[in-house]
Design goal:
By secondary structure, the protein is α+β, with helices and mostly antiparallel strands. It has a domain of about 80 residues: Roll (SH3 type barrels). It is about 20% helix and about 35% strand. It is built from 2 helices and 7 strands. It has a 5-stranded antiparallel β-sheet with strand order 6-5-4-1-7. Strands 2-3 form a two-stranded antiparallel ribbon. About 30% of the residues have low confidence.
Length: about 140
């Protein structure tokens, strides 16, 4: 891994650490809270006529996994340790994006916040709504 790649990963990790210290938890901390990770109540989720983004956390973007199974990794490259696997159709929360190792011509990777912080190749995640911000 080149020094440039290591530096960009270190900068992204530092920015993430600073943001995590300065940002309150976004969801899932209170098991008695009827809202899911997007701030919607269960009734809103079941009402398909309503805008699903109305209570969406503005710091996060969303995406849908398009690969049959996607390795989510500890770093934005194919050499990073696999944290978990995401299945096709799974909706993921995207914190930010950065450039990393190219995957079939796409260098962008998304930092996902679904229970664990892990990187997923943007080549296999279709964004929903606004594009993720840069890390």
């Amino acid at each position: 891994m080149s020094l440039r790649s290591r530096l960009s990963i270190a900068v992204a990790a530092g920015a993430l650490a600073v943001t995590a210290l300065a940002t309150p938890a976004v969801a899932g901390d209170d098991p008695d809270d009827p809202r899911d990770d997007w701030g919607q109540t269960q009734n809103q989720n079941q009402n398909h006529g309503q805008d699903q983004n109305q209570d969406h956390n503005p710091r996060l973007s969303r995406g849908v996994v398009t690969a049959s199974s996607l390795a989510l990794r500890s770093a934005p490259n194919r050499g990073g340790q696999i944290i978990r696997w995401a299945d096709r159709g799974e909706v993921v929360s995207i914190f930010c994006k950065t450039n990393g190792q190219s995957v079939q011509g796409n260098r962008q990777w998304y930092l996902l916040t679904d229970g664990t912080w892990a990187w997923g190749s943007a080549r296999y995640i279709r964004t929903i709504g606004p594009a993720p911000r840069w890390c």
